[in-house]
Design brief:
The structure holds two protein chains of two kinds.
Chain A lengths: L4 H6 L1 H19 L3 H22 L5 E3 L4 E3 L2 H26 L6 H18 L3 H19 L6 H32 L4 H6 L1 H4 L3 H17 L8 H8 L2 H23 L12 H20 L4 H21 L3 H28 L15 H4 L1 H15 L5 H15 L3 H27 L12 H19 L1 H10 L2
Antiparallel strand pairs in A: 1-2
Helix pairs in contact in A: 2-3, 2-5, 3-4, 4-5, 4-12, 4-15, 4-20, 5-6, 5-12, 6-7, 6-12, 7-10, 7-11, 10-12, 11-12, 11-14, 12-14, 12-15, 13-14, 13-19, 14-15, 14-18, 14-19, 15-17, 15-18, 15-20, 15-21, 17-19, 17-20, 18-19, 18-20
Chain B lengths: L4 H21 L3 H26 L3 H31 L13
Helix pairs in contact in B: 1-2, 2-3
Classes of the chains: A mainly alpha, B mainly alpha.
Chain lengths: 475, 101
């Protein structure tokens, strides 16, 4: 029930995306040229919702019977999800034809997954988190296996589905135990009574199971094994969506549930557990990425390592850490989207040209793309003028403020290891001669999408303070 | 005589463990999927138990959502398994190994 017209304006982004899904379904059913209409309709819808969220960012409220929060950090997350999804749609226009699996559902399922993410970021109740997570995950299972005639895509989809549903089991059981002790599923009520509840073993088991279930979605250590296989088997643009918006959505729900505790007496209750999974994710991701020869698998392991860096912010248990994670998520989303975008441009028919060696000589064959890719690799490695550096910087500073200097040191060590495999790609591109002299062919929409992502990476790197100020204002 | 709440909780924990063990040791994709459904249903039993014990209806409402989601998941999951079976003529997880696991 909507109490007043203002509430309607606050949840307008959700209504627009919901309406977009229905309109897209009808267009897909009746229009002959849906293949041309749907991507642009989705992009316009996502951009509108993103900009609307940014404009309305100051109007914080709690709507729909205390089920959903809007405004503030929630709107910043909505902005990240929608811009990411718009860039993914722009990249997909050409890629999905090359990949040989255009079905009209493609854009519609991307829209439903974005709806799920937006619900997760705004959740004020464990029921909403669960439903948002499942709307997103079930869309992702379909997207991973989008080319149903190719057994590699089937395999990626099956692995994603089985492990995702397994993690959902943990999550639901955790929520059941939390509910049993707290007698409510409202996140605010639970955080308010946290001191009374935190002594109870059943409740703490529930929270731990909840965290384990979520570490699947953010691709962190105990549940990371699906990541490389799924990224390798799914369409490259879709893998870009999983690794950016999917991860951001998982973190947004973790922030929603845990940020209320920060600053209070129990802010550091989960620090040991979170630091442990952060350390394992970072080191495992960075070290195993060195041994990879497939670019998508390498990016997958790097994505596990980045989840580890972001968890440092959560482990440090203060507001700076949360602001750091949100900045990191925005920076990482654009960096990884640009990386996956370039991989999707260079990918040949039938999933060829994905070896690291196929990037040899790119510096002479196609200097512009090689330059962009090198810039993105520097940003992912965390080299100063770009956004990746400031993401790590804010997260590590937050850890040091919470007396977790050792954790920041492990993070710095791990980023030094990761420099090796990021820069190896740059070396291959510029200093290794290639067998072919083929120029890279690309369409305008693809290159525009990549350039937009790169521009965001540079802007966030040049003016990190203004984004951090915007976030901290609402924490 | 009323059955104490511990009995229900122990039963649902046992079901949950059965589900986990099933996922980890069975190799048939359909049976793994059934084990996952068992985990979800043990969570449902826990929710119902608490709901009835506390006299609070949120748990029962949650169970409806979990059941709806489980149904959607079953639809997608079986579709994925069928698509895979058409290509590889097997649903044994040990034989589904294009990528190193």
């Amino acid at each position: 029930m909507l109490n007043n017209i203002q509430e309607f304006y606050n949840i307008l982004p959700l209504i627009i995306i919901g309406g977009l899904i229905l309109v897209s379904l009808i267009i897909e059913m009746y229009s002959e040229s849906s293949e041309k209409i749907l991507p642009w309709l989705s992009i316009i819808g996502f951009l509108f919702v993103g900009i609307y969220s940014l404009v309305e960012v100051g109007r914080t409220s709690i709507v729909l019977q205390n089920m959903l929060a809007t405004g503030g950090v929630v709107n910043i997350f909505w902005l990240i999800f929608n811009i990411t999804a718009a860039i993914v749609c722009l990249l997909s226009i050409n890629y999905i034809k090359k990949y040989g699996a255009y079905y009209g559902e493609y854009y519609i399922i991307i829209q439903t997954s974005v709806l799920g993410m937006m619900l997760m970021a705004g959740a004020k109740d464990l029921i909403v988190i669960f439903l948002g997570l499942e709307v997103m995950s079930i869309s992702f299972y379909v997207l991973a296996g989008f080319n149903r005639n190719r057994s590699s895509a089937n395999e990626a989809s099956l692995k994603y589905f089985l492990l995702g549903a397994f993690a959902t089991g943990f999550l639901v059981y955790g929520i059941a135990l939390i509910y049993g002790k707290a007698t409510t599923t409202s996140i605010d009520a639970i955080s308010l009574n946290f001191s009374a509840l935190s002594g109870n073993v059943l409740f703490l088991t529930g929270v731990l199971l909840f965290l384990i279930g979520f570490s699947f979605k953010i691709a962190a250590f105990p549940f990371h094994m699906w990541v490389p296989d799924v990224y390798q088997g799914s369409p490259t643009t879709v893998a870009g969506l999983f690794s950016t918006a999917g991860k951001a959505a998982g973190f947004s729900a973790l922030i929603v549930t845990f940020a209320a505790l920060f600053g209070g007496p129990h802010g550091h209750l989960f620090t040991p557990y979170l630091s442990a999974i952060a350390v394992f994710s970072m080191l495992f991701g960075s070290i195993v990425a060195i041994m990879q020869t497939d670019i998508k698998r390498m990016l997958a392991y790097s994505s596990i390592a980045h989840a580890g860096y972001m968890l440092i912010g959560l482990a440090s248990g203060n507001i700076d850490g949360v602001a750091g994670i949100i900045f990191y998520l925005a920076a990482y989303s654009f960096m990884n989207l640009a990386a996956f975008g370039i991989v999707s441009i260079l990918e040949g028919k039938e999933e060829t040209n994905l070896d690291l060696d196929s990037y040899a000589g790119l510096g002479t064959r196609s200097p512009f793309i090689a330059g962009l890719f090198a810039l993105i690799m520097f940003a992912l490695a965390g080299i100063p003028p770009f956004a990746g550096f400031f993401g790590k910087y804010y997260v590590f500073i937050a850890a040091i403020k919470s007396d977790l200097t050792w954790l920041a040191m492990v993070g710095i060590l791990s980023s030094m290891i990761s420099v090796y495999f990021y820069l190896r790609l740059v070396v291959i591109m510029y200093f290794k001669s290639s067998e072919t002299e083929d120029k890279v062919s690309y369409t305008a929409s693809e290159i525009i999408a990549v350039v937009i992502a790169v521009v965001f990476v540079i802007i966030l790197g040049l003016a990190p303070g203004s984004f951090i100020d915007l976030v901290t204002k609402f924490l | 005589m009323q059955i104490p709440i511990e009995y229900y909780l122990i039963l649902s924990a046992a079901l949950f463990m059965t589900g986990i063990v099933g996922v980890l040791i069975r190799r048939n994709a359909i049976i793994v999927f059934m084990s996952i459904e068992l985990m979800l249903n043990s969570a449902n039993l826990t929710l119902i138990t608490f709901s009835s014990y506390l006299g609070n209806s949120i748990g029962q409402i949650f169970v409806f959502f979990v059941m709806a989601v489980a149904a959607a998941e079953a639809a997608i999951g079986l579709a994925i398994i069928i698509a895979l079976f058409r290509n590889k003529l097997t649903v044994n997880l040990d034989e589904i190994n294009i990528f190193k696991w």
